[in-house]
Specification:
By secondary structure, the chain is an alpha/beta fold. It has eleven helices and eleven strands. The chain has one domain: TIM Barrel (Alpha-Beta Barrel). 45% of the residues lie in helices and 17% in strands. Helix 1 links the parallel strand 1 and strand 2.
């Protein structure tokens, strides 16, 4: 079965750093200048809150979309998350995307800090569903695009039913065939809306040098990533990376690519070649 080829979109996953807004404003403007479509921000109580941070980023740029990547469901009630998402959509003039997921295991302690239960896997997934349901009610005549990070079969089924974009959340060392199977299952679960769903992939490293914090986060070193032909890595010349992303779109269906902020300058020549094509 042929996979419809959607135009490539590129985003940068970054966080505000330092005591003031200057660095964040500069990052947002540079991301836009280099041709990226979106600036995305992770969620966690060790960081600044994503909603005001992203609203600021949108207001100091002209066309840049902003989004959460991804909001941790257990850190807010469904209504609170939907309310903040809808507000950000309104205040950015419709340039906000809600990325949401059930939260990594480290979120359990953070949820306790904010006074909310972490819940079982089924409860957290139901929380995500409820958040999207409330968001649709609040949006009214506007519509906030929803991205869901989905790993297991149950989360992929929910994402196939509710999300506009589905990020394939596989282990860093997962083989290419596993990503192909995950993508196929999303399309199968989506049924009639399969062609409307955009598939996404997050890139942690471009090249063959891995920052220590990234290695710790993904639990793999450069040699392991190379040996596994990791989908979280892009390496080689600009032409080779262009060819690899086109291959991933053809065989997996992935057209939305996000990259860690440490590498967005390095990936910029590829963005110039592929964005919107």
């Amino acid at each position: 079965m042929s996979i419809p080829a959607k135009p490539f979109r590129f985003g940068v996953v970054a966080t505000p750093q330092g005591a003031g807004p200057d660095q964040w404003i500069a990052t947002a403007r540079r991301v836009e200048e280099l041709g990226y479509e979106s600036l995305l921000m992770p969620d966690g109580i060790q960081l600044l809150s994503p909603f005001p941070s992203l609203t600021l980023a949108a207001h100091v740029t002209e066309r840049l979309r902003v989004g959460t990547f991804v909001l941790a469901g257990p850190l807010r009630t469904p209504y609170q998350a939907a309310w903040d998402a809808h507000t950000t959509t309104v205040l950015t003039g419709g340039r906000f995307d809600l990325g949401i997921g059930t939260g990594r295991p480290v979120v359990k302690e953070a949820a306790a800090t904010v006074g909310l239960p972490y819940g079982s896997a089924a409860e957290r997934l139901a929380q995500v569903e409820r958040t999207v349901e409330i968001l649709r009610e609040l949006d009214g005549d506007v519509r906030t695009p929803v991205l869901m990070a989905a790993g297991g079969p149950k989360s992929r089924a929910v994402a196939a039913r509710l999300a506009d974009t589905v990020t394939l959340a596989a282990d860093a060392l997962a083989p290419r065939s596993e990503l192909e199977a995950m993508a196929a299952s999303v399309r199968a679960e989506a049924g009639d809306r399969a062609d409307d769903i955009e598939l996404a992939m997050n890139i942690f490293v471009v090249g063959e040098e891995l920052p220590p914090w990234t290695e710790k986060f993904i639990g793999a070193d450069v040699q392991s990533l190379i040996a596994a032909d990791s989908m979280t890595m892009l390496r080689g010349t600009t032409d080779e990376i262009v060819d690899e992303l086109q291959r991933r779109r053809e065989t997996i269906g992935v057209s939305s690519i996000s990259v860690n902020q440490a590498f967005f300058e390095q990936l910029a020549p590829v963005v110039e070649r592929l964005a919107g094509k």
